[in-house]
Write a structure and sequence with these properties.
Elements: E1 5-11, E2 18-24, E3 27-32, E4 35-39, H1 44-53, E5 64-68, H2 74-82, E6 88-93, H3 96-103, E7 119-123, H4 126-131, E8 137-142, H5 162-171, E9 172-182, H6 187-195, E10 199-206, E11 215-222
Parallel strand pairs: 5-6, 5-8, 6-7, 8-9
Antiparallel strand pairs: 1-2, 2-3, 3-4, 9-11, 10-11
Helix pairs in contact: 1-2
The protein binds S-adenosylmethionine.
């Protein structure tokens, strides 16, 4: 068994949560308060989040997408493959260190998507980016926790309840789509999306994409 090394520990801004970057052989992982948030070992469902959330933008030259948060850049890289040459892709990432890790140690895993000129990064809470950009995005790809409940910070829970979903809806253009990633099924969340007036589909995807792996869940909800 290869030993896992702790590379860096940072405090999540605005909370007491500790985020760590760890390495085990060639594999890197990000943890929050001792719970794994993600690893470089599997990225199939992170890629599927972009494919499902941006399917309606395929073939369009422009469009604006919000990716929250950056993680290891897999969703961002897949988004860049889905949108056109004049598209703009904004990333909202809460933790400055995650941005730094993606520019060096983690960058190669997703092919350094931050170098793409269509990308801009806001080091900010995605909730604030949503609030300050009404009627702006054609797609919003949300993967800030392990599912529709605050994990990286408790206040993320707000996003998945009526008030937060209302702000998400306002940030979308007409017919815009929000896609939400989850490690688990959540029928009550599905119902809240419907109650907010979204047209909702639940997708089950393998953690390793077509290669299988444990089941992850993605909701696509169209305004
Ligand atoms: C599971 S990872 C995202 C994985 C990403 N989809 C990928 O493909 O690598 C979650 C990310 O969201 C960030 N995050 C958590 N809460 C946030 C918030 N409120 N606003 C912005 N980013 C947030 C975390 O710091 C972390 O980088």
């Amino acid at each position: 068994m290869i030993k896992r090394e702790l590379l860096q520990t940072v405090t999540v801004p605005g909370s007491t949560a500790q985020m760590t970057l760890q390495r085990q052989g060639k594999e890197y992982s990000i943890w929050v308060d001792g719970v794994p948030l993600m690893t470089t070992r599997q990225s199939g469902s992170e890629v599927a989040l972009a494919e499902l959330g941006c399917a309606h933008l395929k073939g369009k030259a422009d469009g604006e997408v919000l990716v929250g948060g950056l993680g290891m850049g897999f969703t961002l890289a897949a988004t860049l493959g889905m949108v056109g040459p004049d598209a703009k892709v904004k990333v909202a990432e809460l933790v400055p260190a995650v941005h730094e890790w993606n520019r060096d140690l983690l960058g190669e895993f997703a092919g350094f998507p931050l170098k793409d000129l269509r990308v801009s990064v806001d080091i900010a809470d995605v909730a604030d980016v949503l609030r300050s950009n009404p009627n702006r995005f054609d797609a919003i790809l949300l993967d800030v926790d392990n599912g529709p409940s605050g994990m990286t910070q408790d206040k993320n829970t707000w996003l998945y309840w009526p008030e937060g979903l209302g702000v998400v809806a306002k940030a979308l253009r007409p017919k815009g789509v929000v896609a939400i990633w989850s490690a688990y099924s959540d029928p009550a969340f599905h119902k809240r999306l419907l109650q907010r007036g979204f047209k909702v589909q639940e997708h089950q995807v393998g953690a390793r994409g077509k290669g299988g792996g444990s089941r992850h869940f993605i909701w696509t909800a169209q305004k």
